[in-house]
Every structure is written in structure tokens, then in C-alpha cells.
Amino acid sequence: MLLAIDAGNTNIVFAIYDGTQLRAQWRVATDGERTSDEFAVWLNQLLTLESLSFADLDAAIIATVVPAVLFDLRNLCRKYLKTEPLIVGDPAVDLGMKANVERPQSVGADRLCNTVAAHERYKGAVIVVDFGTATNFDIVAENGDFDGSVIAPGANLSIEALHQAAALLPRVAIHRAHAVIGRDTISSMQSGVYWGYVGLIEGLIGRIKAEYGKPMTVVATGGLAHLFRPDIPAIAHIDPDLTLRGLMLIHARNAKRA
Fold first, then answer.
1. Angle between helices 36-49 and 67-76 (to 10 degrees)
2. 86-87 and 59-64 as β-strands: parallel, antiparallel, unpaired?
3. pLDDT tier at 159, thresholds 50, 70, 90
4. Which of 110, 130, 147, 239 does the annotation list as catalytic?
5. Active site residue 110
6. pLDDT at 258
7. pLDDT beyond 70 at 236
8. Average pLDDT over residues 117-136
9. Which residues contact 76 (CB under 8 A, 6 or more apart)?
10. H/E element holding 3?
11. Could you tell me the CA-to-CA distances from 78 to 4, 26, 83 in Å, in that order?
């Protein structure tokens, strides 16, 4: 079985694939101070709940946008799985696509995984809207290449920045505001973030499609995708496991070459 690890700025997701089937997944807050042994204790307990153990895992792949956690995640695989993990972004790892940007090495590993999975699942050109720490709009060409992007601050990041920068504004949770006009500070903030992001996402999708000049399927992924989709008809699909599937597909591609 394959251990796929997606290490983002906010959370690290660990997933178990049995062939092409996603068997289990768990997430933990990203912490650059956590050691490989700490990861192992946590993961071992969760594997046990699925009647699994480290002995059942014979391969691993890691995608991370947080360099500080890579050392210990790699050591986790070496020490407890007895395997050398593939690292997305390593020149030796074949992605089956290329990044058509000025600095291909600067494209985040998670976005490369999303590109691979989106091309495999959806026909034609695709816009992947990833609701993460940042809100990414990644363009997947018809041939599967990464064809550019737009990056905006994530909704949670924006509302936290508002709280941090303005002394009288509280920290609030994001949810769908039923009215655009707020009647108190909290409802006004929640409306501004929610409906503001609806406008941002709709506007950018429209401008991307107009500039790209081809039919495009819009796919959303990330933690807030389900929250925003009802008010954004342009989003055709929600695919919460897109990054993990990309990891599985990349591993399978490279396993065939080995």
C-alpha cells in the first residue's frame, strides 16, 4: 500500500492508497518542530484504527510546500516504512507534464499534483480553484500541462488579517452570510469575506476564461470548496481528494518506470 503525504501551510494530510482506491486519510496541523518519531506515534495509532500497521505500507510519496517539514517526513518513511519516498518536484520524479511558466521550479508541489489529477479526470482545459491558505486558480491545458495561474489570499487568511490589523475587529468564523448588508460588526465581516470571495472567484474565473479563449471546466478543491460552491454556478465539480489522487497517479507512473 502507498502512503501519500500532502504537506501544506496549514495542514498535513496523510492518505493510504490500496492500488487506486483511497482507503483512509487523516490530517494534522503543520508544525515544523514535529519530529519523525512524533509523526510515527500519531500515524501508528490511526493506522491501528483501520486494522493496518507500518508493515502494510511499502511505498510513499510526499508533496510539500513547507521545506521545514520535509526532512522529518522523509525520515518517517525511511525509518518506519523502510522505503525511500518519492518527492514531487525532484527532477528524477516524472510527472508526465510540464509547467509552462517562467520558473517551473517555483510551482508548488500540491499544484502540480492537482494538475496531474485534473487532466486525468476531466476532459479539455481545466481551471482548478484550490481553497487553501491561498486561493489558487491553476490552469490545466488540454494536453495536461500546467499553463499558468492566479494566486489570491485565502478566505481564512484574509479574515485573520482583518482581525490582526484592526484593533476593534474580532476574530470570526467564515460562513455563508444570508444577507449582504450586515447589522453588526460580526455579520458585516462575515458578509464582506463570504460575498467578497464569491465576487472575487466569479470575476477571476470569467476573466481567465476570456483570456484563455477556450472552453474550460472549473473544478474546486480544498477545505472551503463546499461552502462557496452554492453561490458560484461556474464551479462544475468539487473534488476534495484531487491533490491526493495526483500523488497516487504520480507514484504509479514512476513505479512503472522503475
1. 60
2. parallel
3. confident
4. 110
5. yes
6. 63
7. yes
8. 95
9. 36, 39, 40, 43
10. strand 2-7
11. 14, 20, 5
